[in-house]
């Protein structure tokens, strides 16, 4: 059983930055892909960014150029650096372990508990 624990959320003004962290419990961290999703009130959960085993990345169009996903295999942690935040980025952000290939990212049933990000205007 794998556990994912997110941290780093909070309240920030528009234009500010936050770095989210997702600590993964299993030693098999380095052989899995990961992703960040978000869910705003009244909306469906959406894929924000994903990273492959080898460090390839994908982003949804609305965050390209502002968000960066990266991983530290030595720390079993995946990060999401969020810059130039906008009020529309407000959501609960979730980490997921899954599969990444050329066609996209495929989530597993392993999710973290989520961390709230609120961007004020």
Give an overview of the whole structure.
The protein is globular and about 40 Å long. A hairpin with a 6-residue loop joins strand 4 and strand 5 (46-51). The mean pLDDT is 96. Strands 2, 4, 5, 6, 9, 10 and 11 form a seven-stranded mixed beta sheet that branches. It is built from no helices and eleven strands. It has 121 residues and is an all-beta fold.
Provide a count of the helices: 0
Into which percentage range does the β-strand content fall? Answer: over 45%
Helix and strand string, N-terminal first? EEEEEEEEEEE
Shape: globular
Number of strands: 11
Return the average pLDDT rounded to an integer. 96
Look at the helices and sheets and give the structural class: mainly beta
Distance between the termini: 40 Å
* Helical content class: under 10%
Radius of gyration: 13 Å
Characterize the main sheet.
7 strands, mixed
Spans with pLDDT under 50 lasting ≥5 residues?
A: none
Detail the topology: elements first, then pairings.
Blueprint lengths: L3 E4 L2 E4 L4 E7 L8 E7 L6 E6 L5 E3 L7 E6 L4 E6 L8 E11 L2 E8 L3 E6 L1
Parallel strand pairs: 2-11
Antiparallel strand pairs: 1-3, 3-8, 4-5, 4-9, 5-6, 7-8, 9-10, 9-11
Concise overview:
This protein has 121 residues and is mainly beta.
Features of the shown structure:
121 residues, mainly beta, 7-stranded mixed sheet, 4-stranded antiparallel sheet
């Amino acid at each position: 059983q794998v556990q994912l624990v997110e941290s780093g959320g909070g309240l920030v003004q528009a234009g500010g930055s936050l770095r989210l962290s997702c600590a993964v419990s299993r030693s098999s961290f380095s052989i899995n892909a990961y992703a960040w999703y978000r869910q705003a009130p009244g909306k469906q959960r959406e894929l924000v960014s994903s990273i492959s085993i080898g460090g390839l990345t994908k982003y949804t169009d609305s965050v390209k150029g502002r968000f960066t996903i990266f991983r530290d295999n030595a720390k079993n942690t995946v990060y999401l650096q969020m810059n130039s935040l906008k009020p529309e980025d407000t959501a609960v952000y979730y980490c997921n372990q899954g599969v990444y290939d050329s066609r996209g990212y495929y989530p597993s049933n392993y999710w973290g508990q989520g961390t709230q990000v609120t961007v004020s205007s």
